[in-house]
């Protein structure tokens, strides 16, 4: 019988995960139960993905704003702290900012504009053109920004992040000055002690600051990179990838996930005899065309994955073959010709015309995005995703 379905993606429902739970066994049991209940068989090269949130919850990887404040105070003392390039997010940054403010006396908050790093807009970019403002050269005070653009609320959250962030700082007892610039060097006119809060551009920002006279330079990845008074921590990413947990705490990105994915793979192999690939995923890497938000606010899509998920796809474009190599064929003859081409394709198609238009991204970024869109971030209750047929092509 001709196969009628290719890739199948299932969101798996499991228990609510709490601190101390055996996440490896829970994932294995959830997969086995889903296969039995839904009537599918587990096969080699299937993929099970687990959201980073439940891994961190099982690890108990949490910290309070007091823990953040203690670390900030230890690093900066009583100096004015330049807090630059934070993303605009109640979930991602509000509690981090409260902790930073609680550990400081004075903060100069420098926001990028017209949007933050992941696309949350303070003002529409077209408004800059109308007002004759150049975001790459012009430094604005809060008063100047308001004179140009007034008071704007985020499209989806309804929050004026300028007022909101300033109020959070002042509520923790620190004074706050807000400026707007996209040049890291701007902050050095205000202070030589800088906490850079960008995610994917953080290494460049640190380098620019250090090379231009900054005396103390840290990133969010340096805050809570070690435990503070028994708190959670992330040695590699610190506060990056954290989320609001309670009104006074954050859940950190999970620690040391490689043994977890390897352990799940080994357990499934022992029970089923099949080699299932496993990965932990956070935010997907995609952009919302309406809200203009680039989803990836985590430092990476996947902090850990099994060996079979390393690399990039090696695919050909079917429509290119049909329109070019085999444009003279139709029906079964066309199908047969394309199938034979795929079966005999080179192991590395980089640069070939037949692969143009295929997705030049890492497998983990693609699969993580697929998983994030499947599980969502709300009340679906499917923090594990089971994917079958992802590596199959037109011939299988």
TrEMBL record:
InterPro entries: F420-0_gamma-glut_ligase-dom. This is F420-0--gamma-glutamyl ligase. The keyword Protease does not apply. The keyword Ligase applies. Pfam families: F420_ligase (PF01996). Residues 11-389 form the Coenzyme F420:L-glutamate ligase-like domain. GO terms for molecular function: ligase activity. Keywords: Ligase. It comes from Ureibacillus manganicus DSM 26584.
